[in-house]
Amino acid sequence: MLPSLPLLLALPFLMAAAVAAFPRSSRSTAAWLAALAPLGGLAILGWLTPAVLDGQIVRTLLPWLPQIGLDFHLRLDGLAWMFAGLVLGIGALVVLYARYYLSAQDNAHRFYCYLLLFMGAMLGMVLSGNLLLLMIFWEMTSISSFLLIGFWSHRQDAREGARMALVITGGGGLALLGGVLLIGRIVGSFDLDVVLAAGEQIRASALYPYALFLVLTGIFTKSAQFPFHFWLPHAMAAPTPVSAYLHSATMVKAGVFLLARLHPALAGSDLFFYTVSGIGALTLLIGAWNAIFQHDLKGLLAYSTISHLGLITLLFGLSTPMAVVAGVFHILNHATFKASLFMAAGIIDHETGTRDMRKLGGLRKLMPFTSALAIIASLAMAGIPLLNGFLSKEMLFAEAISAGGTETMRMAVSIAALLAGVFGVAYSLRFVHDTFFAPGPHGLDRVPHEPPRWMKVPVELLVVVCVAVGIAPALTVAPVLHAAAASILGSAMPEYSLSVWHGFNLPLAMSAIGVVGGIALYFGLRKLINLHAVTNTTTGRNVFHAQLDAVSALAMRLTNGIANGSLQRMLLGLVLVAIVVAAAPFVANPASPNWTAPQPIPLLGWALWLVMMGCAIATLRVYKQRLLAVLLVGGVGLMVALTFVFLSAPDLALTQLLVEMVTLVLMLLGMNYLPAQSGPERPRWRKRRDALIAVIAGSGLGALAYTAMTLPPNTMAGELVARALPEAYGQNVVNVILVDFRGFDTFGEITVFGIAALVVHALLRRTRMAPEQIMPGPPIKLPVPADLAQIMFPLTLTVSIFLFLRGHNAPGGGFIAGLVLAVPLLIQYVIQGTASVESRFGFDYIRCIGTGLLIALLSGSASMLFGVPFLTSGHLDLHLPLIGDVPLASAIGFDIGVYLVVFGGAMLMLSMMGTVKPSRTRTARKGEIDLQRRSARTGEMH
Fold this sequence. Notes:
Helix content is 71%, strand content 3%. It is built from 39 helices and 6 strands. The strands form 3 sheets. It has a two-stranded antiparallel sheet with strand order 1-2. Strands 3-6 form a two-stranded parallel ribbon. The chain has a two-stranded antiparallel sheet with strand order 4-5. Strand 1 (58-65) and strand 2 (70-76) form a beta hairpin. The longest helix is centred in the first third of the chain and has 32 residues, at 156-187. The protein is elongated, with a radius of gyration of 33 Å.
């Protein structure tokens, strides 16, 4: 049973990769591949259901970073099981619905990739048994929802909505991280079981108010609670399948899920009661009232979602056992009727070309089946009897009139609940009346008709659930509700009845008042004002943009003051900060270094040192002669490499030599981008200042280097030497450190290296040479060097592979081998040109970087399948005929990733630096630019 949870979590990510791997497949194939993730997940979840309903908690625990309390702990209890079912079940329906919703111009493969990434992030969040692991998936939901909301990136409202959602929920995520860290400090662990059992300890801590504030900030931003609610209506710029998924089972439900998950740990104080219930009540009323005046179908549903999320938050804030049960129940009910309503709104938009209720009307005659489904779902949203929304609304009324706290608080909550009931009926009635019964439609560019048969199936299934739960709740939803609520309340689980009829009581009277009042309010507003003429303004949006503009202006001023394009100023700031940070410990605790007596330097060492110093000083003298200065800097690097050889460090010498070769070429290519003439001479005082700073920084760095080199042998270095062979199965300690002991650091470094290469590519791929820089005539032919370069390449490739294979036990490895392969290829680029080389070799350096990172990640993660930490090495001795024993370490897989990333990144940067193209059109060659001409492939200016 244990491997089932990792497989359940991995399915969406695997299917996302499968969809991306076949970009030319049909839309139906992409939809089927995408559907395999939720359908397979539901099968696994069904297999685990008996254990969950029996009260068991299914777990998978793999150590990850135990030093910081982070374990890969997956935990499936009743609450996680319910949410996983919602994520997968509604996700499967959304995949089917999207197959028919997306137009032929939409990139369905990209859409399904984003959707599956989002599904996987939500599953990871609800299954997390460690708060730090939960935070990782929490942030993944923010990023993937940003991609989904901004899917139609050609639309400004989509870009704005995606940015707003990312900023608000991302900021809340930072606050939540702070709260999680405080909880971990209070409890001493991030394990969810430990945290949930330490409720009294958390509430008794002096840090509890701060932790609660930070956690609630994260929850309120994610679940669109006041005052952060304004981002959710603007997320309606997303395709309707995304809206249906975000509003029913995922994004906005992530906040209330966390509120339910941490309820045993955080609830039980007056601070929690008044804060959560107060914010929930405010959100409940604000969302419901604003929903009445919306003209967009999805806008109305968005504000109704805000209201219902406020209702759920209010119930969890009341904190009584029955309020928690009601909150869980309404999460289920809201998911079903809201998903069906969004899909119905999408069908209407799909078939009429608009969501504006002022243009709609009379659709009950043109789209009778869709109208019936939408009307039933709307009645469930309004809380009409015999539908699921009625039952949880009755529970809300019952809990409101018996709320704890002062009498004033009880009265306020009761009034808020009653007003919400009135407003809910009013906006539901507007949705139904203006869309299906009002005169119309008006000004449509097509004749509305029913959608394709399979596009209606998800709506039909969800409406059937609404009716079935509303008529027979004890036979349908009771086991799910009991399992989820019991995982929150434990022994405090109350006795309750899910009967449709509880007799004539005050909650029933409040329901009746809500229905009658809602009808009266809607038609009264129609009499008093013209609802279609109401102009909607969003204060939150205006405040958000004002703050964003202020932050952007401040950032621009700071940037212009610090990074104004002057490389000298940036280097000066960097060196000064380094000096201050390095000197601060010595100033705080003055101590003289305990240096050992120096050893005599042989004559060769003095020679290397003098040549190095000579090259460095000469560089300062001839810095205006750029080519000569670059060659002298290369001489300094060469002397450093020879110094490593002199000090018996062959790995470092090889690396330094190859990096120097590549850097030298990079600097030479970079001269294309420098102005023809150097800037004016700097004042003498600036030269003296820079010289003083350089002497201080160089002396300090030299002192630190000397201190490190003269440390006694019984330090960490000695331990690494002793552990390299028995634990990592390698005799080359330097390579073992890179791919095993510090492998995670290396993975981060190659990731940064790959990102840097992609940034260079993005900046330079559209660079065009100025007309006055184009040399006349054809390029110069160099046949002999070209032939030599081609002959060298197979030999160098062999050397590269040799250095790679021996790297674990002798000088070499993936980094060195990647650079060795890059150098001869770079020579061919210089001699023969980009077109000639790429036509013969056809390297795709971007894919090479991505493949390398993927191989490094997979090879490092493979060790976790055996219950050991990331990048733990394994060893195998193979006996091959004629060859003999061949020792293999699993770290070679990670080193392959390093090899590919280093080669691909270096070549991508160097090829882009050396491929500055002339302008494509004759007008551009003459210095004229035609603004109407763009590349059909990239959209760039010709």
